[in-house]
Structures are given as structure tokens and as C-alpha cells.
Amino acid sequence: MDRPIFPAGWRDVAALVPDGATLAIAGSGGGLIEPDAVLAALETSFLETGHPRDLTVVHALGIGDGRESGLTRLAHAGMVKRVIGGHWSWSPAMQKLARENLIEAYSLPAGIISTLFRESGAGRPGVITRTGLGTFVDPLLDGGRCNEAAQEALVERIRLDGRDYLRYKPLKIDVGIIRGSTVDARGSLSLAEEAADLDVYAVALAAHNSGGIVIAQARARRDERTTPIRLARIPGVLVDAVLLAPEQRQTALGVHDPRLSGEVAPPAGVASSPPVLPVGLRRIIAERAVEEIGDARSVNFGFGIPGGIPAIARATGRPVRWCTVEQGIHNGELLDGPLFGTARDADAIVSSVDQFDFYGGGGIDVAFLGMGEMDAAGNVNVSRLGGDIVGPGGFIDITQSARKVVFCGAFEARGLDVEMVDGRLVIRTPGSQPKLVERVRHVTFSGGQAIENGQEVLYVTERAVFRLTPQGVALAEVAPGIDLRRDVLDRMQFAPILPQALDNADVLKKAV
């Protein structure tokens, strides 16, 4: 194949993807570097011809808008036979196929998948790490299998120098699907207009060095060489075909913002926009959680309730010395909601593979993550909720290496309605579904492993804060206005360790 070719339409794109191929896809939710035009071409081909079919799809982060773009393009019975995904919730249609056992469903940590692309491309024997021990990806639990159709062992336990490790087996990638901003005369891709780099290079490397091909999407073609040359993030030797998509959007917002991609410096003399503060329950929890930043140099924020903490920190004048998110962003004005993972005026944008290396080696002082369920052992579930696979994203990579972890979540689900009135928490309507349970349905965070690792772990809810100890989960404080017995203890499925000093008075922050 002469490099690169320029497919003229969906038939040309589909002709490059054989039945039964293993696809690696780079991208993230909210349309971040999402190669949707390529995926749409494959979808059109399948609906028109029934091909390509029986695909294996591997992706580190969630890809799509939750409705029709991204992974949903591939979510047709018969088109896909297996998915190995770091995050699933951006495609409810793919979740449905997994729930009905119409595909083999696996989930692994996002950082592991991104790194596995690199290691597979480099010809190394997979990823050997302690990340994932004690969680659902550990072969002693589920081995990353998420439905009955998934039977193959993708992970194994090994021992090195007397310690347990997990070995995530290497992948053979037939087709890498990536996106860039522009492609030059020799096929090199620039990511200059993109809001992140993610694992684009690693996906291309894995496909090329596996003997497969790389299909890239780009907004425009340049007849000259990319300049400055350091903007050519993906060298043309790795690119086999480029689908030009002039309508390509930077993110799901549609409007190109050069401050997201770092193409321009922050406006001189112009104050940054005021923070968009979370409201209601999210704000109550975030306002308590922000106090745990302390003097940490390196702070990580996860999706959901923690995504509102940076705005609270800005509004209250609490400095965050250095902030990162797993998509590779360092500092800047972090965006929340669908565009979580991007930032205006970032100090640096690195690949997500490099970011996860930073995390895995212990680069985070304190991490703030969401919490679906927690249990008596201090385990947390965010990867399987309501019967659907959600996947951990970077949750496992982050929580098993951060020195301090602060989980943020509601005490109950389904119908919970609370508000702060004159500094006291009022529960208007309690939730009908407990979240502090005897045993979580999916272990995304292992309390026992955290104790072994020597980590500090807190669980912040709107009405109470808990702390992980070697003896178990201990109650650390209750919010003013809360009745300890009625609102906390009687609504939990396990009994926490109680401090002797804590009585039923409305006292905020009576620590263990």
C-alpha cells in the first residue's frame, strides 16, 4: 500500500477493515480526538453490506456523545464480537449488547490499555504491574471479564522477587483508528488543534508493528510539510490511510477554541472567567472534599462530583499547586461535565500514556474520585452500576498509586434530596437505594490493597465522612443537622468503627 491513501467514502474505508479484525481506537468522551467519520463509515458499510463484522474493539477511554457517535457506531449485533474497554458509559447501546451477552465484554484500567498499546507495539510481553491487584481485573476475582460471554483470560498473576504482580497480555492490533488535525504531504499528522493527545501515537504504533494498518481522520490536507516540524506528532511511516473530514469538530461543543488546544496564550490582562460552581448535592460534597487538598503539590480530579472541586477551590481561594487529569492535561481552567478531560490555558498537554506513567509511579499526592458504592472492607465500586458495565477509566490506575485518596459520593441513591439551610444539612427526601453496603457488587478499589500500600483513604458524603483504618472503615465526622443514629447508622448496611468522642450532637468534624 502506498502511504498514505485517501479514501473517497465509506466503501473505501470499509475495504481496509476485514471481518474478524481487532481494532484499537483512540479518543475520549465529549468528542475529544474522536475519529467519528471513520467509525461512521464502518457503520454505514455494516448496515448496507453486513461487513465488516465480528470485530474486536479495544479502547482505553469512553468514546462518543452517549447517543450516536463514537463507539455507538459499532454497537450492532454481529458487527462486534468482543470489546475490551476502559470506560463504557459513553455508549449505552454497547452496554446493552454486553448486558444481553451479545458480545464478549471485558474491562481493564484505561492506563493499562493505553500502556498495553505501547508495550505491544514495542514487542514487549505485555504490561507487568501491581495496578489492579485486589480489584475485579485481578484473576482471583473476575480477571476483567464482565459478562458470561467473556471467557478468555486476558490477565494473569505472577510473582517477582517475592511480590505479586499482574501481567496484562499483549495485543495484536489489525487496525488502528486515530485522528489528527491536519495531514501533511508525507502523511504525518499534526495534533495542533486538538485539546489532548491521548494515546494516539501508541495506537498507531501497536497497529503498525503488529503488521496491521492505521486509518487516520484529519480535518484538512496540507501540500507542504508540517511546520514547525515538532507538531508532526504521528510520523507518516505509521499512517496508511487518511479520511479527510472537513466538518471535523474539535469537541462536542462544535466551536473551535484555541485556548483548549494551547494554540494561543491566555489573553493578557484579562481575568479568567468566573468558575462555574456545582449546585445542590454536588456542591455540598465538593465543599467538604476541597478541604483535603491541604498543601499537596500534585492533585488529580476524577469525573462526576470531583469534577466540581476545582471550581470550589478557585472560588474559595484555596490554591491547587499542580492539577492533572488522566487525559494528559496539566493545570489550566479545567472543564466539567461532558468536556471533562479538557482545560483552557493548560500549562502542558502530554500523552495519556505518559500521564499514566506519572500516576503509576506515585506522582499524585492526593486524588479525588467518585464513589458508586462502598463497603465494610473499604472497597469502592464505580465500574458496574445499575446492571451495566461502566468500566473504571483511569480510576484503578489513579487510586492504587496516589498517596492519599478522597472518594466523593452521595450517601444514598434514587430520590435523595438534601440542602444546606443556615449551615445545617436538611434531608428533604432520603434515597431509596443504599450506597454504603455490606459488600460492593464490583471491586474497583480494594481497601485491603490500600492498607497494604500504606495509603490514606477518606470517603466523603453529604452527611458523614469515613476513614479507612487497618481495623476497618471508621466514622470520622458527621455534618451539622444530622442525627447520627437515624440518618447515618440506621441507613448503612454495615456498622462502622465509632470514635469514643462522637455522640449524637450536631457537631461538624469530630475526627476519629
From TrEMBL:
Keywords: Transferase. Its EC number is 2.8.3.8. It comes from the Bacteria. GO terms for molecular function: acetate CoA-transferase activity. The active site is at residue 326. It catalyses: an acyl-CoA + acetate = a carboxylate + acetyl-CoA. One of its GO terms (biological process) is ketone body catabolic process. Pfam families: CoA_trans. Belongs to the 3-oxoacid CoA-transferase family. This is Acetate CoA-transferase YdiF. It comes from Pseudoxanthobacter soli DSM 19599.
